[in-house]
From TrEMBL, chains A, B, C, D:
Keywords on record: Oxidoreductase
Name used for this protein in its record: 2,4-dienoyl-CoA reductase 1
Example GO BP: positive regulation of cold-induced thermogenesis
Residues forming coiled coils: none
Phylogenetic classification of the source organism: Eukaryota, Metazoa, Chordata, Craniata, Vertebrata
GO molecular function: 2,4-dienoyl-CoA reductase (NADPH) activity; identical protein binding; NADPH binding
Pfam families given in the database record: adh_short_C2 (PF13561)
The keyword Cell membrane appears for this protein: no
GO CC term, one of those recorded: mitochondrion
Length: 277, 277, 277, 277
């Protein structure tokens, strides 16, 4: 896969425990299927090798907490041998976003790939949600994403290029991401920019489910509804992101990739239940 | 990209002028972007080489017209060095479909990848459409696709594997393809099968538009609505199909990939029009 | 509500046990809420009276089985005092459809309202579905609906009017109904015709569930996913149909009314499960 | 139509020029079709009379500008003979929202119907949008709607009733409204509450288009895409809202009514263009 990227800018308040850029570079050697042993032996060596070289020459990552950022930057560097710049940025603050984008361009040039992974989760009965909790989420997830996209977008219009990927795991953000991808693809496609959204479905990450779902009931129900019969992995998301950012996907613009089968109709699932019995 | 396929079965009444399997294997050397020269030089050689080797060892193609099938089979063989079997099959006839699948398995074993590309186009004011014209389309597009998928599916349940791609260009078939992908992913996912749909958007093929749209007005309007500002190419579809069939997409099941930005909301487009003025 | 209809044409192979036209006229006096007693007392008398008078002056019904048709016709007549014509018609036969439409116009004039309720159900693991079973369903549901709509549509183009409602309960037909409603609204809207689809969700009818779901497990699961916490009633569908056919909805064209909350996102439902615990 | 409402609470920053509650009560006597004369004569008198009596006994309206609110309150009172309370409220301020809801319940009791019509429009190329402009919109449209819905919802959980209608005209708000309707219907349906969304499509209002579209080009293009061949009217929206709030729609919960045919597929429209030629 050809990423062709010179500069890669990743944004995410939860980089280390979520979809961290380091995974993005190492997917070739990681397990990417349930049946690892069988596949490894069949894996075509030239391709496997090529994957290691598909390397972004410079990577800039931004997030709110400096210590987390630094640890992530070192991890990526040690795994890829690439320089990684870390910039502290609270995406809720437009001025801080503007400074971050200036610094990004100063240290690394205009980015080829921009990954939006800003997230704020809440799984709570709505009636217990306070106005402040709601506002914090929309500030991070909606306003933050908009501020970064608008600021970098304005710079990339001049550069006439740029590829944006937005990961959206929760409902409200997904809706906004869809809107942004479609609107901006329609508006800024003429400048050579592409905007795509990945709706990941439930991914296996350390800690996430144990905290939100201690008994595992929720996880079991989710798995029951996933055609592949298992949670996804971070590497699988990275694979899709790599494909969408590559030149192979140069015509895919304004698309929403629903990785997970989300039973759009009550049909599929019901048929499945019946098929079981 | 790892196709990992031992046997590849492609079905389509319009193989030579549509998405022919030969393209499927040769995308690595073909133009895959608007800006060819620039990209070729940057193209990473090991990957380019790998692409040539990602080869299905056996290919079986089926369609209604034997002469067209034979010409296509020879073309694929000469380009890839692979054996290609051609089986005559009218997908509207369940018995013929059953025989085709038997022969397929006899000559090449259970297929790893099944491509459904059966198509029947009509662009006609509905009031001029006869019951017979309507019936021919549903017989090919709906019943044909269902017969092939059910018959191969039943065989692959025993083999516990299989990847189906369905190309759906027109409205009615797309709806059915979505239904099938979601239902079958939910039902047969447990057997290790995957079902994905590609909704291509307008693709540049020889003849297609000159026949349906002699003045080019329709094409101009379409291009106006595509964020990338141009029609897609067959290679771009092949890229996406290759990705979806590969192990990199092993968790993507029941998905509909809308390659083309189809203005889900009247918004995107309108904003674009206003942005122009 | 003003139906304003002079002639009403209803088509459905399962009129008596499904959404029969007789229900269509009597919704005003039927239970239309879970909390009947409370509502009846509050019910505004002039409106209640008006409902009884909103009467189609002539009703033509068509279906395959003559004995069932006759019984239904008598039932409607006795309840409404209106004339009801019954015409035997197998919608799979284009010639029979043409004759039915001719007779309809001869006995009653051009219809103001056309209800498509042709249905063929299958709840079966796909792997046990035979090509013939599949073909019977598409013949009734797709081809039948298309033949009737095309034939009446051609006649109504001359009359410059007409309102079509299509009930679509199962997945494949729904997809087709959506396609038809949108395409035909776009094409024939200029002739003053309207095309709307109702996707009912699970409705309580005698026999339906006892046959398909003897243990009631499926019904319980469905109810769990319906925000109102209960199955719908035939009268509730009739209410919506009456609204969509009335002049109050004169601008609603090409719409799909999803009566039932079908959990478009895995969110809603999951949140609900969590809210329970 | 039975609104059955004792208290009606309408919220909207642009009540007078947008969908004002006064229209909500008077739709029965207003033009509700393109062909007025013909219809009036056919209009069934008892129903017409009933419509005038379907009256909310108390109406509370809230918005940011007190002078506009007062003028609207007087207009509604003079047309309906009902008491109208006006409460000044900036929906961006959670404390002000809490006070408004307290006052609403104090003066009129728990509302039966809640109309969310808060809006903030922008039609601007995205590259010219400032962070502040973006934030103002999300503050009004997202946070404001959320604050009001959460606050009233918490009160209505105790009252075990309530019907919410959300009008969403622009893209981002529509996405959020969909999310809210589906999530809250799933969560709060058990308390007897219903949440539905109306996506109106282009409606003819004084001033709106003359300001945003002085040359009328945009309006012409929109009309071209509407099956009925004309813009909608405020009364038509009121009709749909009245239906959804009535007991006739007691099972419709979590639904999104797309009044306007928004060409989900590029099909409908294209077919139409071809049909023209």
């Amino acid at each position: 896969m050809t990423l062709q990227a010179r500069v890669f800018f990743a944004l995410g308040s939860r980089l280390p425990c979520g979809l961290a850029p380091r995974r993005f570079f190492s997917y070739g050697t990681k397990i990417y299927s349930t049946n690892t042993e069988a596949l490894q032996s069949k894996f075509f060596p030239p391709l496997q090798k090529a994957m290691h070289h598909l390397i972004v020459t410079q990577c800039v990552i931004a997030s709110r907490k400096m210590d987390v950022l630094k640890a992530t930057a070192e991890q990526i560097s040690s795994q890829t041998g690439n320089k990684v710049h870390a910039i502290q940025c609270d995406v809720r603050d437009p001025d801080m976003v503007q400074n971050t984008v200036s610094e990004l361009i100063k240290v690394a040039g205009h980015p080829n790939i921009v990954i939006n992974n800003a997230a704020g989760n809440f799984i709570s009965p709505t009636e217990r949600l306070s106005p402040n909790a709601w506002k914090t989420i929309t500030d991070i997830v909606l306003n933050g994403t908009a501020f970064v996209t608008l600021e970098i977008g304005k710079q990339l219009i001049k550069a006439q290029k740029g590829m944006f990927i937005c990961f959206s795991r929760i409902y409200l953000t997904l809706m906004c991401a869809r809107f942004c991808a479609k609107s901006l693809a329609a508006e800024w496609g003429k400048y050579g920019m592409r905007f795509n959204v990945i709706q990941p479905g439930p991914i296996k990450t350390k800690g996430a489910f144990s905290r939100l779902d201690p008994t595992g009931t929720f996880e079991k129900e989710m798995i029951d509804r996933i055609p592949c019969g298992r949670l996804g992995t971070i590497e699988e998301l990275a694979n899709l992101a790599a494909f969408l950012c590559s030149d192979y996907a140069s015509w895919i613009n304004g698309a929403v990739s629903i990785v997970y089968f989300s039973s759009l109709f009550f049909s599929g699932e019901d048929v499945r239940n019946i098929a079981k019995s």
